[in-house]
Amino acid sequence: MRIYLSPPDVGDAERAALLGAFDSGWVAPAGPDLAAFEADIAELTGWEGAVALSSGTAALHLALLALGVEPGDDVFVSTFTFAATANAIRYCGANPVFIDSEPTSWNMSPVLLAEALSDARRRNRLPSAVLVVDLYGQCADYEPIVAECHELGIPVVADAAEALGATYKGRPAGTLGDIGVFSFNGNKIITTSGGGMLISPSPSVVDRARYLATQARQPAAHYEHSEVGYNYRLSNVLAALGRAQLARLPSFIERRRRTNAMYRELLAGTYKCEFMPVPSWSGWNGWLTCVTLGDGDTARRVHSGLLAAGIESRPLWKPMHLQPAFAEFACHVDGTSESLFEKGLCLPSGSALTDAEVCEVAEIVRSHVKHRVHP
Ligand SMILES: *Cc1c(COP(=O)(O)O)cnc(C)c1O
């Protein structure tokens, strides 16, 4: 592969930060860089509580546990997402109920959620949490979602794994429900090679997550444990890498948005090629440029054309209600995410992508779309 979808963009600053942490002696899952990384994220989001963790998936798991999600509970969740979101629900022994997307943001439909909630109310089986995903760096339409949930006393978790630095009506991604989750996996907008963060304004949620992440160890010299915990903390060395990456977040966002603007210009007029819509309330972070190409055959042809040229692209997420691992669970769907999956493609969007590479990708996309005049 010559051009990847979203490779890590790391250099001298990250190298210096890593070596600095190494030389400080804090080669441990604790240390000054870990605390400082949490403080940096807290400052960025405006929420005081942040817990750095080994992955975004671990953060999702702890978010649900901190809310008291138990085996047999229902958790309503976006069906159009990466499997980690739904896996975290299963780690708790709870049952996901999948909610489809709306065409305007590609994220959870407030209308379908409202339908699912009134259905659940009729059956006297309300979910113990609603897990909303901010896909491809764009926030969901939280105002109606949170209003519906809070009216029923249901907490909202924001899976902002892909959306660090994005905003909704000017408010930071991650802070739009009761708990927020970020991922720093290698392909995300900033990376610690692997890592995640849980944020919340509630000290009890944050304390509970930190405690569960460190083997549920009670404050006693002999290590007292009254319940089962996890080993989910981020390493101090990787937190140093995270701090160096976070300092570059504004430039990463700017570059990825510019790549998107270039693709829009270069692909303008390409038959039935449409970009992920960005509603007026959305401050998209530019993570991945996504297009739909009219039909599945065209999307597959473009995907293999790019592959033949050594360029990575990827179909949009396959909805969870279509995944064999989750086939047994309930869903409220109207075909929106199925259609996006069928005809959609993510294009190379890394922050180190050059203008020449964007032009090359766009040219190959164009050449594999049948040239027909717009109707
Ligand atoms: C990447 C991702 C996760 C999981 O994050 P990891 O750090 O890889 O565990 C969860 N949800 C979504 C939507 C993601 O894209």
Task: Note down, in words, how this protein is organized.
With 375 residues, the protein is α/β, with parallel strands linked by helices. 39% of the residues lie in helices and 14% in strands. The chain contains 12 helices and 15 strands. It has helices spanning 12-24, 32-45, 56-66, 83-91, 110-122, 142-151, 203-213, 236-247, 249-266, 296-308, 336-343, 355-368; strands at residues 49-53, 74-78, 95-99, 129-133, 156-159, 167-168, 171-172, 179-183, 196-200, 274-275, 282-283, 289-292, 314-315, 331-332, 344-347. The strands form 3 sheets. An 8-stranded mixed sheet has the order 1-9-8-5-4-2-3-14, sandwiched between helices. A 4-stranded antiparallel sheet has the order 10-12-15-13. A 3-stranded antiparallel sheet has the order 7-6-11, with no helix packed on it. Helix 1 runs antiparallel to helix 8 (236-247), helix 3 crosses helix 4 and helix 9 (249-266) packs parallel to helix 12 (355-368). The longest helix has 18 residues, at 249-266. It is globular, with a radius of gyration of 21 Å. The model has no long low-confidence stretch (mean pLDDT 96). It binds pyridoxal-5'-phosphate.
